[in-house]
Amino acid sequence: MSESTSITPTQYIHHHLSYWTVGEGFWSLNVDTLLFSVGLGLILFFTLFFTVRRASVTAPGRWQTGVEMVLTAIHDNVKQVFLFDNPMIAPLAITIFLWIWAMNFMDMLPVDLLPRIAQFIGVHAFGADPEQVYLKVVPTNDMNMTFGLSLGVFALTLYYSFSKKGILGYAKEFVTHPFEGPNLGWKFGLAPFNVLMNIVETVSKPLSLSLRLFGNMFAGEILFILIAMLPAWGQWPLSFVWTAFHLLVITIQAFVFMMLSVVYLSMAHTVHDSHSH
Q1: What is the pLDDT of residue 3?
Q2: How far apart are CA 184 and CA 193, in angstroms?
Q3: What is the pLDDT of residues 187-207, one digit of tens each?
Q4: CB of 163 closer than 8 Å to CB of 148
Q5: Any idea where the domains of the chain sit in the sequence?
Q6: If you average pLDDT over each of 22-26, 56-60, 120-124, which comes out highest?
Q7: Fewest C-beta atoms under 10 Å: which of 25, 152, 201, 208?
């Protein structure tokens, strides 16, 4: 067990699942989520910025080659799904994938590493009780973060739905799709079912995006915590196996979130034939 043996397994798990929170109720903020998400975003921004500044056409280095391979792979996947002319979508997809992957990757760090450092600073610099110093280092393990990401994509889908189809076109789509009757009577009769199905589909998009990412990352962290509670002889082999597998999981989850976001934005750009007449 990585923590002091004076605490129970339940206390150990609870401590690792508690956020560094300020404020109360609705206005509370998870400082650790904000700190790591913004910090990782800035690291990615400046890393790519200096990579571009130092890029060479004639003699690209290994780092530049690796970055270009990742960006090209993302761009090619986006082109296969998004068939419209919008120069914002590919950069948005790249940002989503890299940022989520970086936040997911924090799960690869030893469970007790950064929380122990935070406890050391809290105790020696601020005189805090070590059991009251909390730090969760994986932002995508916070449902607030995953919902924030999904709501950002949701807002973009609504924006493009209205801008590409118009208010009347988008409203007509809600009433007439997916079921269209052969005459006006059928159209009115099927309208309530269409509206209900479209509401469910619209609401499910941000829910599925956020809960899928959160659920996978939360499950991964629980397993890491449980492994950290084992004796040293059991920790190392299990940690190695789960870390190798989880590296694949975090990459897949970032890719799935990115591709579903692109699919939803593509659907927002799609204007049905009935809208063009």
Answers
A1: 44
A2: 15
A3: 666 778 888 888 888 899 999
A4: no
A5: 9-275
A6: 120-124
A7: 25
Backbone torsions φ then ψ of 270, nearest 5 degrees: -75, 120
Q: In this structure, which long-range contacts are made by residues 250-254, counting pairs with CB atoms below 8 Å and at least 24 apart in sequence?
A: 250/101, 250/104, 250/105, 250/107, 250/108, 250/217, 250/220, 251/101, 251/104, 253/100, 253/104, 253/140, 253/212, 253/213, 253/216, 253/217, 254/96, 254/97, 254/98, 254/100, 254/101, 254/104
pLDDT exceeds 60 at position 275: no
The rounded distance, in Å, linking the Cα atoms of 142 and 138 is 8
Q: How far apart are CA 205 and CA 264, in angstroms?
A: 8
Catalytic residue among 28, 86, 208, 274: 208
212 a catalytic residue: yes
Would you tell me how many other CB atoms lie within 10 Å of the CB of residue 252? Answer: 12
Q: E-strand spans in the chain?
A: 21-22, 29-30
Tell which phi-psi region holds residue 139, choosing left (phi > 0), alpha (psi between -120 and 50) or beta. Answer: alpha
Residue 5 has pLDDT above 60, yes or no: no
Q: Residues near 229 by Cβ (< 8 Å), separated by ≥ 6?
A: 1, 2, 9, 12, 13
Q: What distance, in Å, lies between the first and last C-alpha atoms of the chain?
A: 68
Exactly one of 18, 77, 198, 212 is catalytic; name it: 212
Where does 116-235 show beta strands of DSSP type E? none
Say which of 30, 141, 216, 239 is annotated catalytic. Answer: 216
Percent of the chain with pLDDT over 90: 59
Q: Is the pLDDT of residue 164 over 50?
A: yes
Predicted structure pTM score? 0.89
Copy the structure tokens of residue 101.
């992957």
